[in-house]
Amino acid sequence: MASYEHSVLLDRSRCTGCTTCLHHCPTEAIRIRDGHAVISESRCIDCGECIRMCPHKAKKAVSSKLEDMNRFKYKIALPAPTLYGQFDNMEDVDYVLDGLLKIGFDDVFEVSKAAELVSAYTRQYIKTQGIRLPVISSACPVVVRLIGLMYPSLSENIMRLHPPVTMAAKMAKERALKSNPELKPEDVGVCFITPCPGKVSYVNNNREHLGLDIDEVVSISDVYFMLINAMKPDTEVKSLSDSGMIGIGWASSGGESAAILNDDYLAADGIENVIHVLNQIEDGNIPPVRFIELNACPGGCVGGVLTVQNPFIAKARLQSLRRYLPVSMNYLSPEEEQYIPDGYFFDRLPEYEPAGQLSSSMAESMRMMADIQKIREQLPGIDCGACGAPTCRANAEDAVRKGIGFPYCPILKAREAEK
Amino acid sequence: MAEPLVFHFDVDGSDFTSAGQASVQIKKSLRQLGLPSEIIRRVSIAMYEGEINMVIHANGGVADVIVTEDCVEIILKDQGPGIENVEQAMQEGFSTATSTIHSLGFGAGMGLPNMKRYSDTMEIDTVVGVGTTITMKIFLNQ
Description:
Number of strands of chain A: 11
Number of domains of chain B: 1
Largest sheet of chain B: 5 strands, antiparallel
Number of strands of chain B: 5
Helix content of chain A: 25-40%
Distance between the termini of chain B: 19 Å
Largest sheet of chain A: 4 strands, parallel
Strand content of chain A: 5-15%
Strand content of chain B: 25-35%
CATH class of chain B: Alpha Beta
Radius of gyration of chain B: 15 Å
CATH architecture of chain B: 2-Layer Sandwich
Helix content of chain B: 25-40%
Number of helices of chain B: 5
Number of helices of chain A: 16
Order of helices and strands of chain A: EHEEHEEHEHEHHEHEHHHEHEHHHHH
Structural class of chain A: alpha/beta
Largest interface: A-B, 25 and 26 residues
Oligomer: heterodimer
CATH topology of chain B: Heat Shock Protein 90
Order of helices and strands of chain B: EHHEEHHHEE
Structural class of chain B: alpha+beta
Shape of chain B: globular
């Protein structure tokens, strides 16, 4: 399998080997071994659920530090709209953008601005003749990886338009080079300020084959305190913001869907809900909608684990920030909206090996499955996690995959001892 | 040839909200066996429709899925009212579901037609007042 660079990692020194993450991992990618959690690289989708749940803060996301931008002469910040919802008493997005300039960036380009263009083209895309319906949004990288690993039959449904951050980076770099002719392309560094580790992984694993213009990805929580000190809400700041209600709406679940401007959609958030919906799409058991927005985090991107504020509070703040903004500021004429520029398309999804397949030979898989069923029936079935696997079924599966015969089960051991 | 694998499910007729669970389970298992995704999709849709039917009309039943290297066989057995007129029941849009079921978005009269569409062979063995057994086969090498 092609190596995949993960952004969710374990801090071994903090991990006590408790079973919290084990039970919350949606892809059963975690085991407890030798008293510590171990994350399976081939199954992890970087959703950050374990970071959210870990009571010992032993799971962390790897992202860049702001200092990593120092190697560039000209630094551009790409704030995700979620960033705007993190602050109290802030009436205007311009204060955040101005703050980013004050902490050392030379320019800012709002991801929400690119989102408004992606929304305009999405409206066009979902009307394309012959595309597989329902169209599933490509914006949440965790969902895209989840589909690749566990729902390969739905790969065709994924919208082949780049997510807003990708387009924002491209436009930001072009704009910088145009307005500063003395700069060479390598002088310009683009830094995405992300709400989630999923985006970190997206950038690191696609930088080359998609030619992404994103150089570093810094978390919202990392810039938060610097930014809050630099922001001056009582002073006059330059008008910098250039996005409307639609762009900022992308931060919350349902925002991307609302931008298709009809009710022919379904929007779901939270990884368990996403999995449920994907199962139902596969079963053909969903209403006949054209567009499906899926966000791995509860509430959408505002629920990302690298944010500071509670997702619902952030959402409410964004609502008040959006209130008096124009619907969209994409400046496309109706004619321009009809035609999606080539640069917005990507043609292939990364290839993933289906997670969980027992063996490449079906006969062998069937024998293994029979053994798993046999072992599973003898295990207590209480899914306590004390053996280190999330469920008795997973324990049986691990044993058969490793060929170790009957697996260790502390409950059965204890019962034997009682006898 | 490996021994046939049997997956057994009890479909609970009293809990409408859990209908569709067996279909999710079987999908997981077939994925682990490495079956082509198109086959998995067909099995899970056929299975799902069958499960829903058993819950709506027959107060539940049992589902067995038998996997061999060249075929997935789904046997759905219930002790419900039976189907009076199979030919009529096979018509798209024909439904005897109650209005409560309709209000939940089911009962569109597509259950049996979809089961037939997504399987390679389907046999209905039904006796009014005794119950129904439906056997569907989906071949892997077609």
